[in-house]
């Protein structure tokens, strides 16, 4: 079973992913995949061709510089998405296939954190979609503590579908506005339901 995990920027998707992992899910993060892709020579060279050599620091793509270019200009964002998204999807599908082959069946539950799940159309490849949400003031406070400016927060949010739309398209919704214990309880409930669904396959 392939589970897509998404939500708004700063909602706490990574926290929820870790909770699923503790419960026994195989997990994967699109951000981690992108981090690895940026180290590939062919990807690095393509990005340098797009944005120039000043995007590099000591021969590596500077992710902070890249983010600034991508989220401040829609044309740049679409260019980088066209380059990276097919590679991300390919990696997800290969990893899931490998996991199912190792277990010799389709009983494995893999949860994949994909911030732009709906925006990329990746949701169509998932068996189940889980959306993480949180109250706007909670999100702002969390992101400010991480060093994001209000302008950066708005730019990141503008690159995604509204959270209400994501919620309306979800199979499960986890509200991460409260305590970690509250979130964990919700994740446990979703996990129990996923296990029941898996057993019926």
Describe this structure in words.
The protein is of the alpha/beta class. The chain has one domain: P-loop containing nucleotide triphosphate hydrolases (Rossmann fold). 59% of the residues lie in helices and 14% in strands. The strands form two sheets. Strands 2-5-1-6-7 form a five-stranded parallel sheet, with helices on both faces. Strand 3 (56-57) and strand 4 form a beta hairpin. The longest helix is centred in the middle third of the chain and has 30 residues, at 74-103. One of its GO terms (biological process) is coenzyme A biosynthetic process. InterPro entries: Depp_CoAkinase, P-loop_NTPase.
Q: Please trace the helix and strand order, writing H or E for each element.
A: EHEHHEEHHEHEHHHEH
First-last Cα distance: 10 Å
CATH class: Alpha Beta
What structural class do helix, strand and pairing data support? alpha/beta
Taking pLDDT < 50 over at least 5 consecutive residues as the criterion, the unreliable ranges are: none
Global mean pLDDT: 91
Strand content: 5-15%
User: In total, how many beta strands?
Assistant: 7
Rg calc = 18 Å
Q: Strands across the major sheet, in which order?
A: 2-5-1-6-7
Number of domains: 1
Name the CATH architecture. Answer: 3-Layer(aba) Sandwich
Helical segment count: 10
- The CATH superfamily bears the name P-loop containing nucleotide triphosphate hydrolases
CATH topology: Rossmann fold
Coarse morphology: globular
Question: How helical, in percent, are the residues?
Answer: 55-70%
* Major β-sheet profile: 5 strands, parallel
GO biological process, one term: coenzyme A biosynthetic process
GO molecular function, one term: ATP binding
EC number: 2.7.1.24
InterPro entries: Depp_CoAkinase (IPR001977), P-loop_NTPase (IPR027417)
């Amino acid at each position: 079973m392939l589970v897509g995990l998404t939500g708004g920027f700063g909602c706490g998707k990574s926290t929820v992913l870790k909770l699923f992992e503790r419960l026994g899910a195989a997990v994967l993060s699109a951000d981690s995949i992108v981090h690895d892709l940026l180290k590939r020579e062919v990807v690095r060279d393509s990005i340098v061709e797009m944005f120039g050599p000043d995007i590099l620091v000591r021969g590596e793509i500077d992710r902070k510089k890249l983010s600034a270019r991508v989220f401040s200009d829609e044309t740049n964002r679409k260019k980088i998405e066209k380059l990276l998204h097919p590679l991300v999807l390919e990696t997800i599908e290969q990893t899931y296939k490998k996991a199912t082959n190792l277990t010799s069946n389709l009983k494995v539950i893999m949860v994949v954190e994909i911030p732009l799940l709906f925006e990329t159309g990746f949701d169509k490849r998932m068996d189940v979609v889980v959306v993480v949400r949180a109250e706007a003031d909670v999100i702002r406070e969390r992101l400010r503590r991480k060093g994001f400016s209000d302008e950066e927060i708005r730019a990141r949010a503008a690159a995604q579908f509204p959270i209400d739309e994501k919620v309306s398209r979800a199979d499960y919704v986890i509200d991460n506005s409260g305590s970690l214990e509250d979130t964990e309880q919700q994740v446990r409930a979703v996990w129990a339901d996923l296990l029941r669904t898996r057993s019926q396959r």
